[in-house]
Design goal:
It holds the Pfam family Lipase_GDSL_2. The protein is α/β, with parallel strands linked by helices. The chain is 45% helix and 7% strand. Strands 2-1-3-4-5 form a five-stranded parallel β-sheet, sandwiched between helices.
């Protein structure tokens, strides 16, 4: 065997071992029972997990990218309320209800009869909201990733191809499960914050006007689905889409990153954004369950 062939064999073998190790790590972390105290249960996707906002939260599977800078972790510290944080980047409402993400159980299984507070931010991955927004911005770059996107990506879903009604139905199902499993808990649905300005665009977004118009509509429909689910189920709503309307990615004090110059994950909340979200949730608790503030 030549030295080149031997070297290639070593590289391939090493890569295979790393893949197997990574798979086993994800499997182990996914099957492991979540840690923490379920007095407060936080569920949802990367917007709740706090991707890119500091060190990994205790007990977080690596793939979930859950951090101590997330709004649930800040609420837990602020209220001195023990938390079982099962948020996970890329999660859908199906993962909350039925599980399967990175071999994990359904997030809803974290609920217990003694749970006092539940927060949920989800739905964006169901309709490819931030995923498509990120792919569009990447496609518009003069880079290898831009070339790959142009060549191999089929493009974003049209706005009318996204099932907003299914998001609403699944959120109502989440509310029913919370009521059944944790009848004493205060349930708060938290919308995704505003990413795009009410009109126009800015260079930080790296998208065209037509792309901005389409994705702005998608974001509005997602927020509408969450509002409708809260009304139908009786859940408390913290509407960061409205509260953050003047703090979009193009603003002077953004609560969400753009594509360029992101401090954290692109098109995801900034530290200011998660702080504002945590404050808004605490204010909602003060209005609807002030007894939690003294625990």
């Amino acid at each position: 065997m030549t030295k080149i062939a031997m070297g290639a064999l070593i590289v391939v073998g090493t890569a295979a071992v790393l893949v197997v190790v990574a798979f086993l790590l994800v499997l182990y972390q996914g099957k492991r029972k979540p840690g923490g105290d379920p007095a407060y249960v936080a569920m949802g996707s990367s917007f709740a997990a706090g991707i890119g906002l500091g060190q990994r939260a205790p007990g977080s599977p690596i793939a979930c990218m859950r951090t101590i800078g997330s709004y649930p972790q800040q609420i837990s510290r602020s209220l001195n309320l023990p938390i079982m944080d099962v948020t996970c980047s890329a999660a859908t409402t199906d993962h909350i209800l039925r599980g399967g993400q990175y071999f994990q159980r359904a997030q809803i299984n974290a609920l217990k009869p003694e749970t006092k507070l539940v927060t949920v931010t989800t739905g964006g991955n169901d309709i490819r909201y931030v995923g498509d927004l990120s792919f569009i911005a990447a496609r518009n770059t003069a880079s290898v990733s831009g070339w790959l996107m142009k060549r191999f990506w089929g493009g974003p879903l049209r706005a009318d191809q996204r099932d907003y009604a299914a998001v609403r139905r699944d959120l109502v199902s989440v509310a029913r499960e919370v009521s059944r499993r944790s009848p004493k808990a205060l349930l708060i649905f938290v919308t995704y914050p505003t990413i795009l300005p009410a009109s126009g665009r800015c260079p930080l977004l790296n998208i065209t006007q037509d792309e901005a118009d389409m994705m702005r509509f998608v974001g509005e429909q997602l927020a509408g689905a969450t509002r409708a689910a809260a009304r139908q189920s009786g859940a408390v709503l913290v509407d960061m889409q409205k509260l953050g309307a003047d703090h979009h990615a193009c603003s002077q004090e953004p609560w969400v990153n753009g594509w360029r110059n992101a401090q954290g994950a692109q098109f995801h909340p900034t530290r200011l954004g998660t702080r504002a979200t945590a404050d808004a949730v605490v204010q909602a608790i003060r209005s609807h369950a002030p007894n939690l503030l003294s625990k």
